[in-house]
Amino acid sequence: MKKICLSVGLLLSLMRVGYTQPLDKPPYEPRKLKVDEINLVSSYYQQDGNKSAVTGGIGTEYLTDFAQSIDLVLKSTDAKNRQHSLAFDLNIDHYTSASSDKIDPLTVSSASRSDTHIYPSVSWSVHDNDRRTTQGVALSYSTEYDYKSYGVNVSFAKASADNNREVSLKAGAFFDTWKVILPAELRPEGYGSGAHGDTDPVDYKPRNSYNVSLSLSQVINKRLQVLFTVEPAFQQGLLSTPFHRIYFQDGAETVERLPGSRLKLPIGLRLHYFMGDRLVVRTFYRYYIDDWGMQAHTINLETPIKLTSFVSVSPFYRFSHQTAVRYFSPYGEHRSTERYYTSDYDISGFNSQFIGTGIRLAPPGGLFGIGHWQSVELRYGHYTRTTGMVANSLTLLAKLK
Amino acid sequence: MILQSLKTLSLVGLIILGLSGCTTVKEYQKSRINDAEMELSARKSEKFEQNFYLYREGAAGANGGKSGGGCGCN
């Protein structure tokens, strides 16, 4: 009995010593910035159709886009045990667009018949585990032949004490500039083509976009979680595309004209459920409305199936329905008395479907004997819409850790 | 119409808040919730798909994709 009492006493004193360790010393040593994750994404996209806005709602929509992306995430822990993340993201798209030849059939060097779109971004965030907060800021830039964009985003998120709920707020602004390239036959006297080597002047117009995103995520039970997002956005400036032609009922021709501002309200709901041991059901619904008269409903269902612990297959299906903006009419159907007009089928009324599958491999020792190569994912999708446009998309993702 | 949307939004918000009272899930019970496939944001491999929806469909936003920059006008 004495031995038991002595042992218990000794244990209690050891525990007391443990609890009375000085608290002013942080439990973790500050860790320097080091690479945490690298993602490499390659993507190929091709579309075809016969309702190009460049030629007023008729003509080829053939387009190819080969995209490369690399993002690098670096992490460190400071003396207050807060985790800092620094992320660099570089995206390069090289695209060819058959309809862009039609902007200026004489020079063919116009706007972006073949162009490279580069958009790097850098972001920094701090996660405080004690306060359960994450705050961050991001800067972005985007450049194409006739378009430049500067963006800034700030974000703040706060999790509940049990980490089952998180509220996050993001705000972003993009300050863009258009080079106003007009169709060849609609250029005023002395107005430039915008092509390299043409010294005649062209106009530049601004387009600014502002958005706020409020999200609430909630763990419902051990298998189910939801995310609710509201993302109002406001745009102002040149919102029409200057080289989109319009043909009126009387045969007259002009360029697309749209209001100088647009207010959008998309509302999204995600619901993810882990069914059994091998199946995850990822659902997404979005309702959208704007002040140009468009409404849309989008549903997305994806069901990753874990064939083994290291291999999963993810079939997916997406359906979207949108109504036309009130300024839309097909080729040759606009009246010259209208104030605004567009024949761009991207903002017409249609249903679209996107169906495909992804496969993901993530063996524990890394891929092909490379320990840092954590996973690879291949994804293919086929897109159709009721305007007659079809598209195919193939994406390859490699993750290194 | 905007008012109608706000009503829908409030309704969904209330449903979520109602659901939030269901169960308290402890950290050690989150093996399935923390699975990579359960991540609530869109995955990296979906990034370019979201870009093309943004360019090819008028309705954009609220899905974690790109929300500005670049005209997408061809």
Automatic annotation (TrEMBL), chain A:
Pfam families: DUF3570. InterPro entries: DUF3570. It comes from Spirosoma radiotolerans. This is DUF3570 domain-containing protein. It comes from the Bacteria.
TrEMBL record, chain B:
It comes from the Bacteria. InterPro entries: DUF4266. Pfam families: DUF4266. PROSITE patterns: PROKAR_LIPOPROTEIN (PS51257). Residues 25-74 form the DUF4266 domain. This is DUF4266 domain-containing protein. It comes from Spirosoma radiotolerans.
